[in-house]
Amino acid sequence: MLTQEKPPTNNMDTFAEYLNPTTFEDVFKLWSKYEDTAIHFNDLLIRLRIQILGGVSISGTLATTIIKENNIYSLRYIFLSLLIIWIAVWILDICYYSRLLSGAVDATIEIEKKFPSFQLSTKIKKSVNKSWNKIDGVQSFYLIIFTVLLVSSVILFWPA
């Protein structure tokens, strides 16, 4: 038989306490959880981008080093496969992970609007938006490697 535990008190373990934080400590705990979520998604994105860049770079380098000129057929399809993988990860990043991060940051900023003593995400977002102006760093990252893989694939498929 299950026994009910004593309801939590003053440690923000209930949903209602999250909705209506009353003390500075409660607000800080709530803000901290939101900030941790944003940091988690940012970490996922950074690792995804670094790992795909490393994987594509190593695969392309190994393929061109190991495969001899007489087996250009294999090299063509390796680079075409790398291009397709790059596009798939690009879509996954932009359409899924970046949206999760954006939602987490927006939620954190909502708390920061209600409680102005917390401004970390607000200041970071302003700084990023101001420094990049009209250049999108994430799209540029993917576009540069996409261009290299596309040009390499075209050159390898070009009739000799």
What is the topology?
Blueprint: H1 15-19, H2 24-66, H3 72-114, H4 120-132, H5 137-157
Helix pairs in contact: 2-3, 3-4, 3-5
How does this structure look, described?
This protein is mainly alpha-helical and 160 residues long. The protein has one domain. Helix content is 78%, strand content 0%. The protein contains 5 helices and no strands. The mean pLDDT is 81.
Structural class: mainly alpha
Strand content: under 5%
Q: If you average the pLDDT, what whole number results?
A: 81
What count of structural domains?
Answer: 1
Cα gyration radius (Å): 24 Å
Distance between the termini: 78 Å
Number of strands: 0
Shape, per Cα inertia axes:
elongated
Biggest sheet descriptor = none
Helix content: over 70%
Write the H/E string, N to C: HHHHH
Low-confidence stretches: none
The total count of helices amounts to 5
Annotation keywords:
mainly alpha, 160 residues, elongated, single chain, 0% strand, 5 helices, 78% helix
State the gist of this model.
With 160 residues, the chain is mainly alpha-helical. The protein has helices spanning 15-19, 24-66, 72-114, 120-132, 137-157.
